[in-house]
Structures are given as structure tokens and as C-alpha cells.
Design a protein that fits this description.
It is a single chain. By secondary structure, the chain is an alpha/beta fold. It folds into two domains: about 170 residues, Periplasmic binding protein-like II (D-Maltodextrin-Binding Protein, domain 2); about 90 residues, D-Maltodextrin-Binding Protein, domain 2. About 45% of the residues lie in helices and about 15% in strands. It has twelve helices and ten strands. The protein has a five-stranded mixed beta sheet, sandwiched between helices. A five-stranded mixed beta sheet has the order 7-6-8-5-9, with helices on both faces. Strand 1, helix 3 and strand 2 form a beta-alpha-beta unit. The N and C termini lie far apart (about 75 Å). It comes from Prevotella veroralis F0319. It holds the Pfam family NMT1. Belongs to the bacterial solute-binding protein SsuA/TauA family.
Length: about 290
């Protein structure tokens, strides 16, 4: 018994080992290539490449930082706590030109938004938005789209626009019938439409493509960026080959979607790494210049 006890580690040794382990984990996290993501389907390639390890871990350590509001992604980008982020051109161009955050675009994404009216509001067409309230995020793609919708609708009375940043809170508000209409992307849009609510506008139908993956330049790491881009393209190939619904487990895990919502999702195609369209960049910049 004394021999066995003598072979065991002392409390001091165990504490030192635990401290060393924690220090190593902190250093590993600091070196990792961190990407800000949302619980939305434009981010599915990132969730897939991370869960399926579609990259060489010896070359890059990819970590995902999950947020439910675009403004929190902004904070992470501006503060330098992430190396990349899924966002939209309105938000990123504002960060670049108003807050002087150095960044460039790795790729555009298939982010699209629908304006969905609560069935209890009885909104059937855009002109019905007169004297109604819609939920958006200020200085974002949904802000730009709200302006487009109002101009197109030409309502008799004012359309009130309130800021609700968290996409999951928006969905809960719809379920509780709190205001009239909300901007949703997938899979929240499909969930919203399952409740007999009405889609008034779709950004894809309007030819608006503003989703992007932005790379922070202040501490740019080109080799990590290259590995991330390769893994992103692998994920896109798999999703397009198998279909979005094949990845139901990922969608439920990261986006809080249920089985019925996954089954009802549209057939969504993804594109490989490529820059955003110049027309969309100009549109985002023009919007910001007119809404300072």
C-alpha cells in the first residue's frame, strides 16, 4: 500500500499539470483560425467543413464562434477576436469605411432574405404594409431591403421599422404574434412559413446578392486563409452533391431547426469561393452613403 501511494502524483503535481494543460489550450485557441458564424444556412459550409474535418489539421486549426445576432459578429470583427466572418455587404462595407476595419472578401454566399408577415396581421401584398411594423437589423442587408420594399410598396402611411438583431428572437416574436412582419433567412424562413404566415418579398427574386465571407486583414494569415478556402470548396461540393436535407443533423444541431422544418427546406445550391458582384458592392455603398 505504501509503495502504491508513493507512486501516485501529489496534489501539487496534479495542479501544475492542470495549469499547464489550461495554458496550452489558451495558446492553441489564440493560434486557431476563428470564424464568426450565425445559425443560418449560408453558414452550412462552415459547419460541415468543421464537423467533417475537411481540412488538414496540421496546417490550420479552424474554430467556429457562434452568434445569433449580426451585431455580435461585427463586434468580433472590429475587435479582432475572429479572422473571418459570415456577414453581408452592408455591414462589412460600413465596418470598412466607418470604423476603418481592414478586411477583404474571400467569397460571396447564397444568403437570401424573405419578408414574412404574421398571419394575424392579414398582410397579403407589400402595399398592405402601410402603418405596420417590420423587424430588421439596422445597417444591414435587411435595412437595405426594407428601404427597397417601402419604395416598391408606396404605402399610404408610414411603415415602422424596429431593430430586432437576434434571428432566433425574431422567430419567437412571430410565434407570439408580437408585430406585423419580419426579415428571415433560412432555415428560420421555412419555419415561419410553416405557420401559415405569408412571404411578401424575397431578395433572391429581386436579384439582390449581398452575403459574404469577410477576412480580417489586420493580422492576416494567408496560409490559414488558403486552407479555409480549400475546405470551404470541398464542403460546397458535398452539399451540392448530397442536397441540403442530407445534412439534417448539422442543421438541427447548429440552427435549432426541427425535423419538419428540415424536410420543408427548399433545394439550395451553393457556389464555390468567388468575389461578390461589383453591382452588389455599389448597391451596398450607395445605401450607406444615403443613410449616414
Amino acid at each position: 500500500m505504501f509503495l502504491i501511494a508513493g507512486c501516485g502524483k501529489s496534489a501539487k503535481q496534479l495542479k501544475a499539470e492542470q495549469k499547464a494543460k489550461e495554458h496550452a489550450e489558451i495558446e492553441s485557441y489564440q493560434r486557431a483560425y476563428k470564424i464568426a458564424v450565425m445559425p443560418t444556412l449560408d453558414c452550412l459550409p462552415a459547419y460541415l467543413l468543421k464537423d467533417s474535418m475537411l481540412y488538414d489539421t496540421a496546417k490550420v486549426d479552424i474554430r467556429l464562434k457562434e452568434y445569433t445576432a449580426q451585431m455580435d459578429c461585427d463586434t468580433a470583427m472590429a475587435g479582432g477576436s475572429v479572422q473571418a466572418a459570415f456577414s453581408d455587404l452592408v455591414r462589412t462595407e460600413r465596418l470598412k469605411h466607418r470604423q476603418k476595419v481592414l478586411m477583404h472578401y474571400l467569397t460571396d454566399t447564397n444568403l437570401n432574405w424573405q419578408l414574412i408577415a404574421d398571419r394575424s396581421s392579414k398582410l397579403k401584398k407589400l402595399s398592405d404594409l402601410s402603418d405596420k411594423i417590420i423587424a430588421k437589423t439596422r445597417f444591414s442587408g435587411t435595412d437595405l431591403l426594407s428601404n427597397k420594399v417601402v419604395k416598391k410598396a408606396k404605402p399610404k402611411y408610414q411603415v415602422f421599422q424596429v431593430q430586432v438583431n437576434d434571428v432566433l428572437i425574431r422567430l419567437k416574436m412571430l410565434q407570439n404574434h408580437e408585430i406585423d412582419a419580419y426579415w428571415f433567412t433560412e432555415p428560420q424562413a421555412t419555419k415561419a412559413l410553416q405557420g401559415d404566415n405569408n412571404s411578401l418579398f424575397n431578395s433572391t427574386d429581386a436579384g439582390v446578392h449581398i452575403g459574404v465571407v469577410a477576412i480580417m486583414d489586420k493580422h492576416r494569415r494567408p496560409s490559414d486563409e488558403t486552407e479555409f478556402a480549400k475546405a470551404y470548396d470541398k464542403a460546397v461540393e458535398l452539399i451540392n452533391k448530397n442536397g441540403v436535407k442530407y445534412y439534417a443533423a448539422l442543421i438541427k444541431k447548429y440552427m435549432q431547426a426541427d425535423d419538419a422544418t428540415v424536410r420543408a427546406l427548399p433545394d439550395i445550391k451553393y457556389t464555390k469561393v468567388g468575389p461578390p458582384r461589383r453591382a452588389d458592392l455599389i448597391m451596398a455603398r450607395d445605401f450607406l452613403n444615403h443613410n449616414k
